[in-house]
Amino acid sequence: MVREISAGGVVVRKRDGVWWMAAIEPPRENAANAGGRPARSKAVVALPKGLVDAGETPLATALREVYEETGITADMITKLGDSKYVYVRSWGDGERVFKIVTFYLMRYRSGRINDISPQMRIEVARASWVRLEDAPTLLAYKGEKQMAQRALEYVTAHDEI
Questions:
Q1: Which of 9, 16, 56, 120 is least buried, going by the fewest C-beta atoms within 10 A?
Q2: Are 50 and 68 in contact (CB under 8 A)?
Q3: pTM score of the predicted model
Q4: How far from the centroid of its chain's Cα atoms is residue 60's Cα?
């Protein structure tokens, strides 16, 4: 079984007493489903994340992916945890993949959400702020829901961030 190592971020900011989180929506149709798989009918809400490049640390990957996929820069607060799962590639070889994604809680520093390069639109249809308290129900993937819940618990206990 192939192994993939990825990293991503739960980027938060507080405005008017409310915690917000950066989320992305992958395109509903992309090259990956050109092989006969039907396009998704409902938007998927996810966290920014991506593969760790050779020589890159998971934290560096998470910060890079947050910027590339959302248009914002952030500072790491703490590691939230790892999400581990198995999936079957829907493209190419159809191989089973064991994936580990390390997630970090991050604080928004600068930038405009959804201000991303045209090349990134292949991966991200839209980036937006969602209420952190709504994130565990909005996110599509179980591991990401857990990370959003951990982020909510952290900011509730550490309001000074």
A1: 16
A2: yes
A3: 0.89
A4: 14
Residues in the chain, total: 161
Secondary structure in 3-state letters for 19-80: EEEEEEECCCCCHHHCCCCCCCCCCCCECCEEECCCCCCHHHHHHHHHHHHHCEEEEEEEEE
Decide if 128 contacts 23 (C-beta within 8 A). Answer: yes
Res. 129: pLDDT tops 60: yes
Mean pLDDT value across the chain = 92
Q: Count of domains in the chain?
A: 1
The helix or strand, by DSSP H or E, that contains position 81, with its residue range, turns out to be: strand 72-88
Q: Which residue range(s) make up the domain with 9?
A: 2-157
Q: Answer positive or negative: Cα dihedral of 5, 107, 11, 67.
A: negative
Confidence of residue 36 (pLDDT cuts 50, 70, 90): very low
The CATH number for 53's domain is: 3.90.79.10
